Amino acid sequence: MLLTKKSSHAAQVASSSASPFVHGLRRGLSQALPTMDRRSFLRRSGLGVGVGIAASQLTLVKKSNAAEGAKVGIGDSKIEVRRTICTHCSVGCAVDAVVENGVWVRQEPVFDSPINLGAHCAKGAALREHGHGEYRLRYPMKLVNGKYERISWDTALNEITAKMQELRKASGPDSVYFVGSSKHNNEQAYLLRKFVSFWGTNNCDHQARICHSTTVAGVANTWGYGAMTNSYNDMQNSKVALYIGSNAAEAHPVSMLHMLHAKETGCKMIVVDPRFTRTAAKADEYVRIRSGTDIPFLFGLLYHIFKNGWEDKKYINDRVYGMDKVREDVLAKWSPDKVEEACGVKEDQMFKVAKMLHDNNPGTIVWCMGQTQHTIGNAMVRASCILQLALGNVGKTGGGTNIFRGHDNVQGATDVGPNPDSLPGYYGLAEGSWKHFAAVWGVDFEWIKKQYASPAMMTKSGITVSRWIDGVMENNELIDQDSNLRGVFFWGHAPNSQTRGLEMKRAMDKLDLLVVVDPYPSATAAMAAMPGKAEDLNPNRAVYLLPAATQFETSGSCTASNRSLQWREKVIEPLWESRSDHMIMHQFAEKLGFAAELSKNYKMQKVKGMDEPVPEDILREINKSVWTIGYTGQSPERLKAHMKNMHLFDVKTLKAKGGKDKDTGYDFTGDYFGLPWPCYGTPELKHPGSANLYDTSKHVMDGGGNFRANFGVEKDGQNLLAEDGSHSLGAEITTGYPEFDHVLLKKLGWWDDLSDAEKAKAEGKNWKTDPTGAIIRVAMKHGCHPFGNAKARAVVWNFPDAIPQHREPLYGTRPDLVAKYPTHDDKKAFWRLPTLYKSVQDKNVADKAYEKFPLILSSGRLVEYEGGGEETRSNPWLAELQQESFVEINPKTAADRGIRNGERVWLSSPTGARINVQALVTERVAPDTVWMPFHFSGRWQGADMLAYYPKGAAPVVRGEAVNTATTYGYDSVTMMQETKTTICNVERA
Length: 989
Prior knowledge:
Number of helices: 37
Low-confidence stretches: 1-64
Largest sheet: 7 strands, mixed
Strand content: 5-15%
Mean pLDDT: 92
Helix content: 25-40%
């Protein structure tokens, strides 16, 4: 919150010398906000500086029009404070935006937020620039003769939908692909999956595919839910923290507050990374590994843990299946010499780290894309889970697997958004799932089925975003759908965040329809306009740019990495001609003929005179449908009450000990901040949310739980359910049990706890499909978890490698290790496409690609930018901080090539790409490795792409994208791209 002026001589002097704008802002604040005591003043100081900055930025403020007739900065204007959430990373930092007559004039971090504790990183501090839109896409545009020309919204909507219908008629609904966004709020992400379903395809996806899809699949298949088990806050309770493939200091800067607090109370911090990062600079122990060798390292730790008897035997017996088989595999394959050969870490350091993990309990593990973005990413994340299970660290305060997600709502978009293999809430694509949602949506199941090319396509997983290129370019006979992709929507997605940039350009040119919906034109616009190969260009191609509003120009919920939901208030009205994403979806549906079905359950509100679905109503529909992961208890009313009363929640536990909302009387007692999912049952049940998953020390109605029974009750004669005595606190069933359905309730004699009306609707249902939530309510009343009580799986028999196995990357520099640890065999039909593994790896070895490209290339984040970088590089304040794309190169490697620090270099890769960047000579990287940030675009193999952006909408900083040069390679379960390990060469320019 903000300060009010207190009288003093100094203040009077300052006030008398201030500009009318500053004087007016101070006066408005003094009227709008309560006076603070000395403690609050010291805690929240900074008004003078903030106002000074606001005054100095008047030229930008003028670019946003104030409410008609208002006098901004004169002293008689209306000031409002709107609470929102940062739209960059997944930490979930709260921001108070100060709005004067419709103009966003300044911001403050929310000091009461238990998540960001009044802190900002550079990106968060620069959020207000979104409210001015100097470099944003202002109007709908169309590519005409290589240049973008302004068109009207009506023209754009009519032409795009006509083209869609033309493609549908000629090639079926699967010929159009929809790339959604992790920048959409939950309501928009959910609505897009619904929209795509009514169009009649599962060809949709979003950023999670290329950042944490391996986490979601690997972790969910280990113990139930594929998400962060604890929270940033809970890390303050850890005694040791292992960061592997996570550079939190730059990727999630504010999360480091909690880790640094933990270090103050003795927590040991271990950082494992091929690169010495800013996070590593804070570590008690830094371990450098060769990129892609996480499994040798993790199983090397387990070798010492098993050898010394440091595993938690009681925990393993009661709550884990298959650890005995993992133990055999580890002891047979990962002796210290084998570990050092594979990942480069010596035995004494491996033993030291293993002992640190054993001696300091509880311990947590953190991973990010350094671990996920590999062809064996699914196995790597499971190895991390197995390590924590062996130590008994899952399901306890200070423990868990703290998986840091990327974008601000990538967690929510994964949970309820446009996934190609599931409906919202990870409901599969089987007929029962479709019928469940058809009932919630109030539409006939048969009508939805007729929208699809066939019933078979309705239940078949779509193409992943990582492979849409091949959906366009692959031989049609080899694709598991009728047509190649002919139209693609980039709905809030950066193309430069994907691999194989050269081929992507070719795929864009071959399309019949390309639509970019984004507040910024993104690199897609420039890539599409840039001349390519004449033989690739489709003469009938149509390219459109549609200006979407930012998340500050609408309202809605977003889910932080710790699974807490927060509600954003609308800060300002949409700038220029931008429209909210859910309004655009509704308008497309009107033109395509299914708006009545899409928006049936939503009231409409007028925005700029047009109908827009009310976000609260969309969330209420989510509350009525997504029982699987507990998105049902977080009503708009509960979330809004949490946002207004952040001060009630404990910084370490996220729990409210009491307090009531002064407006509604809502009692917060027992709630966890943001009602982290699963928040089971209806909002009326008042489940508090689940701060730490699988915690048997708490009652289920206090957020407690156990591992999920999702894989049967027995495997090869071994029990898959929890052993006797292992259960959540207060459970009336004191052993393992399967998930709840109508049959189990009847066997237990609990069926009569339902009302007659509930019985009628719950008959034949399970806890995931009962529309009343009564099965969940009754199970929890008896202290039981609705999803059952089972063992976590150390052995996942339905994955390519039941026990995680190290396999060398497709493009590597160690042919000797490829012989020992080869990749998977090729797959003929995988997510509708042929997918290559061994043939690519074998060819690279045979061609001795490692001699031409002897350096390992990896990539990662910078603190100044986010994702593909288009919006953050369009922010003048951030652009000033980081003006060049660069490659980090070791001093020895640079010296051998005659490269000096700051010189231009050419980085080349096996794809034929050559990118021109600046050399940063540093010992952060080893001699065999180079590293680049992945936030850049706007330069293409040495050439500036400025001429190909819409006029006035190019980012301030443009640079080469590392993914122009990255190579083929995809995870064997989720089709995650392999961006953290490929090969290249670097030469002086």
